[in-house]
Amino acid sequence: MSLKYPLPRGTRDILPEEMPFWHHVEDTARSIFSAYNYQEIRTPIFELTELFERGIGDGTDIVEKEMYTFTDKGERRLTLRPEGTAPIARAYLQNGLGKKEPQSKLYYCGPMFRYERPQAGRYRQFYQIGVENIGNEHPFADAELISMGVHLFDEMGISGLSVTLNSVGCLVCRPVIEERLKQFLGSNLKHMCDDCNRRFSVNPLRILDCKNATCKTYRTAIPDIQESLCHGCSDHFSSVVEYIEALGIPFQINPQLVRGLDYYTRTAFEIVSDQLGAQNALCGGGRYDGLIQHLGGPATPAVGFAFGVDRAVMILKELSDILKQKNKLIYVAPIGASQQPRCFYLVDTLRRAGFKVEIDYSKDDIKYQLKQANKLGATRCIIYGDREFESDTVIIKNMVTTEQTTIPFDNVISFLSTHADTLPHTS
Ligand code: ATP
Ligand code: MG
């Protein structure tokens, strides 16, 4: 059917059938963040365009090509947020969080907007969950953050991930790194793409992030960033490596890893999945010690990461066993119209006790009711007809094994509470 008003390109509806995966990701993230004592922050969906121009950086894909920018009726230049870190840095300054506590550990969750070419795992409205630890420059903070990322995906049930790590230096050694890079690339620049040519003078480190196959070939023997790091950055990086090794987290150092944003300093890391195809980056993060000062605040170290919820869900859908056990639906089947009121009451009692329950009043014959229970994937069906009314009992049918048990009406909750396949959804 060709719709008169279809979705804008690069956006999509997330339908109820996919929602258990989203909730699984969001709930797991919230519980892990809480274990590491992070607190949620929510910022507006749009901000002043300048915040992103300054906070993300001129030479980046986001600022150059990907922002949804508009002018409102008051002639303000506004942009739908393409990422979460700059807004959080702004909120940190605006609300004086640095004065309230020495370290702010914040997490966020919500839609981001980037004008990109839509494809599998790449949308124009997508969702990120991210964390920012502001005020802590110690390499323990970087290592803890990487470890929290790995812990998070383990807990979600996503395997086959690998962590890559690099240091991109600081204001002191960045010019040295860039100069070496320029010397190395200089003679080949004419064979490389327009973006690389432009970035050569604006922001040469970004050349390392170019995905163009030809450009990649000219980078194979590139000088190792590690060799140009200043002592401070080199020591910091060695400690991060030492601490994550101590936790037994497998990782690789990729000397060409840089992040897409200008404000990153020192640690840069990525968590990629072998199950995502071309868009294999699940999570990206690193340190951004210069950002808060750059936005007009005091010098404040910070480290954070963000992961793509859409991509996490894509992986989880392939491993959907994880979620099957979460959907423990109980179906109540009134047999005969006169039994419907008592079932109406039973359903209410069960829902208040935390069970997930469905009932259908449209037909009251057993055949239809069992068919519905099956169709909805219920784990148990509670059958209640005239005979059960007479004896004040119910029949509980296990929809997987088809085994039926008759128990007293008043024992329904205690019966369901002691069977693993029917425990309340809140447990
Ligand atoms: P990529 O290299 O895939 O463009 P990125 O470096 O632009 O990623 P970040 O800005 O670090 O990504 O965002 C963190 C995560 O957000 C990514 O690892 C990815 O999972 C997700 N993400 C980024 N852009 C999109 C998008 N357009 N659609 C869906 N998810 C995205
Ligand atoms: Mg991108």
Structure notes:
The protein is α+β, with helices and mostly antiparallel strands and 427 residues long. It has 2 domains: 16-173 and 229-321, Bira Bifunctional Protein, Domain 2 (BirA Bifunctional Protein, domain 2), CATH 3.30.930; 328-422, Anticodon-binding domain (Rossmann fold). Helices cover 38% and strands 22% of the residues. The protein is built from 18 helices and 16 strands. The protein has helices at residues 19-35, 49-56, 61-66, 85-94, 97-100, 139-156, 174-185, 194-202, 213-217, 225-228, 231-246, 291-294, 309-318, 321-324, 340-352, 366-375, 386-391, 412-417; strands at 39-40, 46-48, 68-71, 77-80, 104-113, 125-134, 161-167, 251-253, 265-273, 281-287, 302-308, 329-334, 356-359, 380-384, 393-398, 404-408. The protein has an 8-stranded mixed β-sheet, with helices on both faces. A 5-stranded mixed β-sheet has the order 13-12-14-15-16, with helices on both faces. Strands 2-4-3 form a 3-stranded antiparallel β-sheet. Strand 15 and strand 16 (404-408) form a beta hairpin. Helix 6 runs parallel beside helix 11 (231-246). It starts with 18 loop residues before the first helix and ends in a 10-residue tail after the last helix. The structure holds adenosine-5'-triphosphate (ATP) and magnesium ion.
